[in-house]
Design brief:
Number of strands of chain A: 0
Structural class of chain B: alpha+beta
Shape of chain B: globular
Order of helices and strands of chain A: HHHHH
Helix content of chain B: 25-40%
Largest sheet of chain B: 7 strands, antiparallel
Number of helices of chain A: 5
Largest sheet of chain A: none
Number of domains of chain A: 1
Number of domains of chain B: 1
Distance between the termini of chain B: 66 Å
Strand content of chain A: under 5%
Number of strands of chain B: 9
Strand order of the largest sheet of chain B: 1-4-5-6-7-8-9
Oligomer: heterodimer
Distance between the termini of chain A: 5 Å
Radius of gyration of chain A: 18 Å
Strand content of chain B: 35-45%
Radius of gyration of chain B: 16 Å
Order of helices and strands of chain B: HEEEEEEEEEH
Shape of chain A: elongated
C-alpha cells in the first residue's frame, strides 16, 4: 500500500462533498420557484433543508471513516498487530503517533477531529467537542497521514 | 518523613534554548561531514516553527547535494509523541525518507518503514543514509 492511496481517498470524499453541496444548493434554488422539482411525494422542501444542514457532518463522518480505515490497515499490514480491528480509534491514533514519532500537535489535532466525529455520531453520549469544518478536518487528517511511510 | 524529589520541569525558554543548541550540533555535524565528502550543503530560507511548550523559533533546513543526488534535512519539531525531537532526511525527487529522532541525549536514525534496526547518529550513519537516499533508482 502507498501513502498516496488513503490521502487520495480523503480528497475524493472532499470532492464528493463539493459536488453534493452544489447539487443541494441548485435543488434548493429550483424548489423555491417550482415545487414540482420533487419527483416524489415523499420529498419536500424540509427534506432538502435537512439535507443541506446535515451534509457537512455526514461527510465528516465519512472522511474520518476513511482515515481510520487507513490507520487500521497500516496497523495490520505494517505493524502486524492482531489488534488492528479491535483497538479503539483514540488508542490507534496515539499508538501510530508514537510509533511514527509524529509531532504532538498533529496527533492532538487528529484526536480533536475524532472527538468531533464522536460528538456528531453519539451526540447524546458525549460532551461538547470543538466544531471543526470539513475542510479543516481533511487538512488535519491528511497531515497525520503524511507521516505514514511512502509504501508499506 | 521522606520527601520525593522530582526534576523541576524546564520552562519553555529553557526547552527552546536547549533544543536550538541540540539542533545546531546536528546541523553542524551534517555540514561538516558533507564537506568532508566534498558534497555541497546550503542552508535554506529560515522557517518559523511554533510549538506549545517550546515557543516560536526560526530554523534553516539544509539542502545537500551528494555526488549522486539531492536530499534535504528538514527540522520537523521538538514536541514529538514518543521522542524529544525530529529531523527528516528526504530525498528528491523520490521523497524517500529517513527519520532522525532524539531520545534523551541521543539521536537515532530509522528508515521510514521501520523495517531495519535503528542506528545511532554518527558520520557513518549519515553518509550511509545519504548515499542510500540518493542512489540512482
Amino acid at each position: 500500500m502507498s501513502r498516496e492511496s488513503p490521502v487520495a481517498r480523503l480528497q475524493s470524499v472532499w470532492r464528493e462533498f463539493l459536488a453534493a453541496s452544489l447539487a443541494t444548493e441548485r435543488l434548493r434554488a429550483a424548489a423555491r420557484s417550482d415545487s414540482s422539482v420533487f419527483a416524489t411525494e415523499e420529498l419536500g422542501p424540509a427534506d432538502i433543508e435537512a439535507c443541506a444542514r446535515n451534509l457537512e457532518p455526514t461527510y465528516l463522518v465519512r472522511l474520518f471513516a476513511e482515515f481510520e480505515a487507513a490507520l487500521r490497515l497500516y496497523w495490520r499490514d505494517n505493524r502486524r498487530r492482531r489488534t488492528w480491528n479491535t483497538i479503539g480509534a483514540e488508542a490507534l491514533i496515539q499508538s501510530v503517533g508514537a510509533y511514527r514519532e509524529i509531532p504532538a500537535p498533529v496527533v492532538a489535532s487528529a484526536q480533536e477531529a475524532r472527538e468531533f466525529r464522536n460528538h456528531l455520531v453519539h451526540q447524546a453520549e458525549t460532551t461538547e467537542a470543538a466544531a471543526i469544518s470539513l475542510r479543516e478536518c481533511r487538512s488535519r487528517l491528511c497531515r497525520f497521514l503524511s507521516s505514514l511511510p511512502l509504501r508499506w | 518523613m521522606s520527601a520525593t524529589l522530582t526534576e523541576p520541569r524546564a520552562t519553555p525558554r529553557q526547552t527552546k534554548v536547549e533544543w536550538l543548541a541540540t539542533l545546531d550540533d546536528l546541523i553542524n555535524d551534517i555540514e561538516q561531514w558533507a564537506a568532508e565528502e566534498d558534497w555541497q550543503v546550503a542552508r535554506l530560507k529560515k522557517k518559523t516553527i511554533h510549538e506549545r511548550g517550546v515557543g516560536t523559533y526560526s530554523v534553516s533546513d539544509l539542502r545537500i547535494r551528494t555526488h549522486s543526488g539531492i536530499l534535504n534535512a528538514e527540522v520537523v519539531a521538538r514536541d514529538i509523541v514518543g521522542a524529544d525531537g525530529r529531523v527528516d532526511l528526504i530525498s528528491f525527487p523520490t521523497m524517500d525518507r529517513f527519520v532522525v529522532v532524539r531520545r534523551g541525549d541521543t539521536w537515532i536514525v530509522h528508515d521510514d518503514a521501520r523495517s531495519r534496526h535503528p542506528r545511532r547518529w554518527s558520520k557513518k550513519t549519515f553518509i550511509d543514509v545519504a548515499e542510500e537516499l540518493t542512489k540512482p533508482q
